[in-house]
Design brief:
A: 84% helix; B: mainly alpha; two-stranded antiparallel ribbon; 18 helices; 4 strands
Chain lengths: 31, 591
Amino acid sequence: MDAMFLGLTVVLGALSLGLIAVCDLLMGPQS
Amino acid sequence: MSTLAILQLVLYLVVLTALVKPLGWYMARVYQGKPCGLDAVLGWLERGIYWLAGTKPDGEMTWRQYAVAMMLFCTLSTLVVYGIQRAQHILPLNPQGLPAVTPDSSFNTAVSFATNTNWQGYGGETTMSYFTQMLALTVQNFVSAAAGMAVLVALIRGFARKQTDKVGDFWVDLTRSTLYILLPLSLVLAIVLVSQGVVQTFSPYVTATLIDPAFDGEGKPLIEQTIAVGPAASQIAIKQLGTNGGGFFNVNSAHPFENPTPLANFLELLAILLISGALCWTFGEMVGDRRQGWAVYAAMVVLFVPLLALCYWAEQSGNPKLTALGVDQVASDLQSGGNMEGKEVRYGIANSVLWATATTAASNGSVNSMHDSFTPLGGLIPMWLMQLGEVIFGGVGSGLYGMLAFAIITVFIAGLMVGRTPEYLGKKIEAYEMKMASLIILIPCAVVLIGTAVAVVGPGLEYPGASPNEVKSNFNNPGAHGFSEVLYAFSSAGNNNGSAFAGLSANEPFYNTALGLAMWFARFWLAIPILAIAGSLAAKKVVPVSSGTLPTHTPLFVMLLASVVVLVGALTFLPALALGPIVEQLQMVNS
């Protein structure tokens, strides 16, 4: 169970970093 | 409404508004790096932290670097809080010998405190050791609040700066928020609370002999009572100031050791909205036009006061079914009157309702009465305040950045009406900002509605791990009220509030995991688009004011902004509310 919840937290963190990348991509040349 | 109640509510708003300017001015100086007084005392500590962290006081980051730093910090915080809870049985400061917290509850609580939600599926005094309360939960009360304030300051810099890709330094903003704003205010409030009788001790729980023995459910006499104590005052001060809300004790601020006197109640209430309100002034000061800050503050008050009045009316009116049974619910010199179920006699209707609306307008979540026991209409108000996006004061930092996202939507709608490119504070609002603002509005709505729908179609109805002797249902109430309890839980987690309707048994694997996910997405998947907007705005030129510019400091804009918040909230949540509190109100009145 610990591995599952620790893994879930890391996945959530990674997904959030992915959202940063998507927002950056959408911003395009403006940045 | 009684004269005394009106006086209390007016006094509260007057004192709050009077403190907005001085505190807002002070916070603006902190974030602008100007001398603020405390830097002369704590400057060495600030420099020491920067030296340890390898950063500089004048450091600058792009919005991407800022967002990555925030996410790394918050993810690591979640992992640390999880680890402390799982290991608390072998860690010090555990005089009661409390066991490790279960994995699913640890995950829920870790996300809850790292996201500034402070939803509590557990009972504090029966679950958490002093070590966990202080080094996991109280530390997160400070840094999660500071992270929200840091994101707001980055957004303000996005408005204030021009043609740059830098929005400040996350570590500097986090440090200054904690060191110069949250810590000093908490220290002062904690000392005042201790003077009022809030406990602050490392001693084990006290055992008292009952003067009048009671009997348990099996008829056995009870001659002793365990009275929980602990380092509560230090946690309560920051839980209110940082709009965290997680109580030291299970019944939160209804507990006499958390909220012992009328003065303590007033100061804690004030602390709930203080920083969020004052940040409006900080915003105006930092963008160079204080009228803008007052306009946003006015929009918050315009939304808050009518909802407070409606909630008060609903609770003071009482329950017509009890009236039909001959119960006297009329206010008099001897009683508060109205619906007093789940409310402290010490606070009565006025202070219970003011707390309920303030704590849900802000993303605080502490309670001094049980919202589950409010009348259906009275309970609808706190629930809807959360569903409006926690932008009416809202969380420290997060409330104002949410409201500024609504302001961006408002100027866009106004621009569509007159056929001009929308501007806000001299920055053109274009497709990218609108996409990000739309994400900010839609994500919490999706989290709340999808989460509630999933829970009520199956996984949230029963606890599959219950033994044959245990009650399997997660609901204390069937029908519309049971639905309201689930909707409230996801509205609370999906907007980072943390208060509960309390009738739902949420400390089980499904709710601990689902609400944990809701809290995560509601916090960080809003903060990231906000930082993206900050980066986009900072790179833009400032457009000079022209005859086509919509003034954003006028009463017209205040009403327009308030209307957009109400419309989005009503259109999104009215169908769900109709299945819960609205139908329950109709049942109460008509049956």
